[in-house]
Amino acid sequence: MTHTLQGREVRLRPGEIIVSKTDPRGRVTYVNDTLVRVSGFTEAEMLGQPHNVVRHPQMPRAVFGYLWTELLAGREVFGYLANATRDGGFYWVFAHVTPTRAPDGSIRGFHSTRRAPQQAGIDVFHPLYRRVLEAEQRAGGSAREQLAAGEAALAAELAARATTFDALVWSSTAAEGAAA
Ligand SMILES: Cc1cc2nc3c(=O)[nH]c(=O)nc-3n(C[C@H](O)[C@H](O)[C@H](O)COP(=O)(O)O)c2cc1C
Predict the structure, then answer these.
(1) Is 64 close to ligand 1, i.e. is its CB under 6 Å away?
(2) What would the pLDDT profile of 90-124 be if each residue is shown by its tens digit?
(3) Which residue of 49, 55, 100, 146 sits with most ligand 1 atoms within 8 Å of its CB, as the best mutation to test the pocket?
(4) What is the pLDDT confidence band of residue 74, given thresholds at 50, 70 and 90?
(5) CATH number assigned to the domain comprising residue 102
(6) Helix (H) or strand (E) segment spanning residue 95
(7) What is the extent of the structural domain holding 71?
(8) By C-alpha distance, which of 126, 25, 125, 111 is closest to 76?
(9) From the CB of 61, is ligand 1 less than 6 Å away?
(10) How confident is the model over 25-53, as a mean pLDDT?
(11) Minimum-distance ligand 1 atom for the alpha carbon of 112
């Protein structure tokens, strides 16, 4: 088990925003130029694909379990994520993912914006994700069994801090301009 993410790290420039949109099933319907440049995937390689095309293999399943539980319940999610680049590198982002709704209130897709993360947030979430990933790998078995083990590990980590995923995201993120 490595203790850092493998591959070359790409950093977003301050102020840059990565945008993507999906249909209700999570298939990519839009990517902006910044996602193309940072990820190294072409627009054609991403459009129509499941959004896990940019998934980093060292990200725990439980984080995406949480993401989809919230999204399908109609709630937005903020979080620190590491994504993979086409050439096997990675980049950390601070992501916001939200359902988009039709006028009748039904979910017609999902929309995500991501910007350069604060190091303080990576310092909290990188080791946390590593421990959750280790729990998933120890569990072995099917994807479902690994997800269950990861969800239990994530819940235990949050309970030990008497916090929630969202509260931990925000307590790890200094207000803009307030960082030391
Ligand atoms: C709008 C939107 C944006 C997403 N952005 C990412 C992302 O940047 N990186 C990522 O790994 N998964 C992202 N996902 C989650 C993926 O759909 C997927 O659940 C995840 O990559 C895990 O892959 P898996 O479900 O095949 O294990 C996003 C989903 C949506 C709806």
Answers:
(1) yes
(2) 999 999 999 999 999 999 999 999 999 999 999 99
(3) 55
(4) very high
(5) 3.30.450.20
(6) strand 90-101
(7) 17-171
(8) 111
(9) yes
(10) 96
(11) 1
Per-residue model confidence (pLDDT) at position 6: 80
Let me know: does 131 contact 119? Beta carbons within 8 Å. Answer: no
* 31 assigned to some structural domain: yes
90-101 sheet: strands from edge to edge: 28-31, 17-22, 107-115, 90-101, 77-84
Q: According to the model, what pLDDT value does residue 7 have?
A: 85
Is the residue at 150 inside a domain?
Answer: yes
Q: Are 130 and 150 in contact (CB under 8 A)?
A: no
Which long-range contacts does 71-80 make (Cβ < 8 Å, 24+ apart)?
A: 71/97, 71/98, 71/99, 71/110, 72/107, 74/99, 74/107, 75/99, 77/166, 78/166, 78/169, 78/170, 79/125, 79/165, 79/169, 80/117, 80/121, 80/122, 80/124, 80/125, 80/126, 80/169, 80/172
* Burial of 42 from C-beta contacts in 10 A (0-12 / 13-18 / 19+): exposed
Tokens for 23?
């249909």
